[in-house]
Design brief:
The chain contains eight helices and eight strands, in the order αβααβαβαββαβαβαβ. It is of the alpha/beta class. It has an eight-stranded mixed beta sheet, with helices on both faces. The longest helix is centred in the middle third of the chain and has 14 residues.
């Protein structure tokens, strides 16, 4: 079902201009944009410091990111979300609590290279990405070889991808793609909430709902 447009969407988006770095597509053709358009972010200008930068792809309503940024004030965070209705909630929540180390990109993940400098990201977070099980949509999966090639360009040497999902099939698919793309995979668990990694885990809204139904949560870290 199509999400209903938020009331006063545009004025509310304008009110969040201080935390929104870019919005939309520079041109209709995503492939052309990724190959030719560059408006690279200046982290020092944006955040006013040289702290490490981490990225969440598909931040949703911002629950994970807000908690992560509050716990780690000496780290800068970028959040990517395509759906304007959804990213608006995340931005408004960020502004309401006064977090200064978070900025947002309302763009397709396919054009991350247009804005994020090469080898400048320490960690990429993929929290409960849509599995897209249909074979015809494989290239759209956020752990497909197409996207892993993008992440490799963004990650600094030794950088990591941290993934959580409730889908066993998507998890196994992702593990295979990480290895195929040359990542070293570790910290693999098929039951996060009953693992050594549970104590430091930030439970997202989706995650809490899945766990309440007794569904296991899968997690892995892929290092570049």
């Amino acid at each position: 079902m199509r999400m209903r447009r938020k009331r006063n969407l545009e004025p509310r988006m304008e009110a969040c201009a201080d935390v929104l770095l870019c919005r939309g597509k520079p041109c209709k053709n995503l492939k052309e944009a990724a190959e030719t358009f560059r408006a690279l972010l200046d982290y020092r200008k944006i955040f006013g410091n040289d702290a490490p930068v981490e990225l969440e792809v598909g931040c949703g309503n911002g629950g994970f990111l807000l908690e992560k940024a509050a716990r780690e004030p000496n780290v800068n965070f970028l959040a990517v979300e395509l759906c304007t209705n959804v990213i608006l909630t995340a931005m408004e929540r960020t502004r309401a609590v006064g977090l200064r180390n978070v900025r947002f990109l309302n763009i397709p993940a396919e054009i991350l290279e247009c804005y994020i400098p090469e080898h400048s990201i320490r960690t990429i977070y993929l929290n409960f990405s849509t599995p897209l099980p249909e074979k015809s949509r494989e290239k759209q999966r956020l752990t497909s070889m197409r996207f892993l090639a993008i992440y490799r360009k963004l990650l600094m040497a030794g950088g990591t991808i941290e993934q959580k999902t409730d889908s066993a099939d998507f998890f196994e698919y992702s593990l295979a793609r990480y290895e195929e793309a040359g990542f070293a995979v570790g910290e693999v668990t098929h039951d996060l909430h009953n693992s050594p990694y549970a104590e430091s885990n930030i439970v997202t809204e989706y995650e809490a709902a899945f766990a309440a139904k007794g569904m296991p949560i899968f997690r892995a870290v892929a290092r570049y």
